Amino acid sequence: MALIIQDECINCDVCEPECPNGAISQGEDIYVIDPALCTECVGHHGLPQCIEVCPVDCIDKDPMHVESHDSLYQKYLKLTQ
Fold first, then answer.
1. Which of 8, 12, 31, 80 is buried deepest, with most CB atoms within 10 A?
2. DSSP strands (E only) in 6-53
3. pLDDT tens column, 62-73
4. Rounded to an integer, what distance in angstroms lies between the CA atom of residue 79 and that of residue 37?
């Protein structure tokens, strides 16, 4: 499952540099996560780093992009080739 940034985002710029896949970028109003690039840090870290550093806890699993741990790992392998 990819992650999603909710409307509570305060645009603090903390999450973007923490993403090892470059999945986080500034959107029109708040930061956004590209589900094609988000692996929830599988292959890089034990926990999603954006969630770990978010000061307002506005990052959640995206119910529109459900993926298993294995599929996230396969995505990680493709992104790091």
1. 31
2. 24-26, 31-33
3. 999 999 999 999
4. 8
